[in-house]
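agent: user wants the structure for Cytidine deaminase from Marinirhabdus gelatinilytica. delegating to structure tool.
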Amino acid sequence: MAKKLTITTQLTVFQSIDELPQPIQELMHKAQEARERAYAPYSLFKVGAALQLANGEVVMGNNQENAAFPSGLCAERVAAFHAGATYPGVAFQAMALTVRSLQKEVNTPTPPCGACRQSLAEYEVNQKTPIAIYFMGETGKVAQASSVKDLLPFVFDSTFLQNIS
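agent: tool returned. relaying tokens verbatim.
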């Protein structure tokens, strides 16, 4: 007999940046800074990310589009890959994300896309500690996931690729 599996996720929602703890406010401001430098001439949708590392460094990223659409890269992965290349083995503690459309106001918390969730999950699984993800639109509420697993409950990781003997 088939059984239903219930998946629950929990997010904390803050009414504005001002309600965030001070270090996270600063991280979100860095994400906003990065967002404004995004290269988004095709989607007109700018995304900024700021990644707090365990060594105290903050690495920023923004979306980088390309006329050959699959060749671009999201802000979250730009930041994560830069951090992984520059500070190998240093844990990611928190990531702040913010978006802005040049066509309409975005006031709804906007989470990472699926590809970015999967990429961040790889880092979280490897470091064996959760990465807090804070995300917002251009204005308004900020959502917080305490772990990438709250955004991607069925993580595909290296355990699926290992031979079973």
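agent: one observation worth passing along. The chain has a mean pLDDT of 95.
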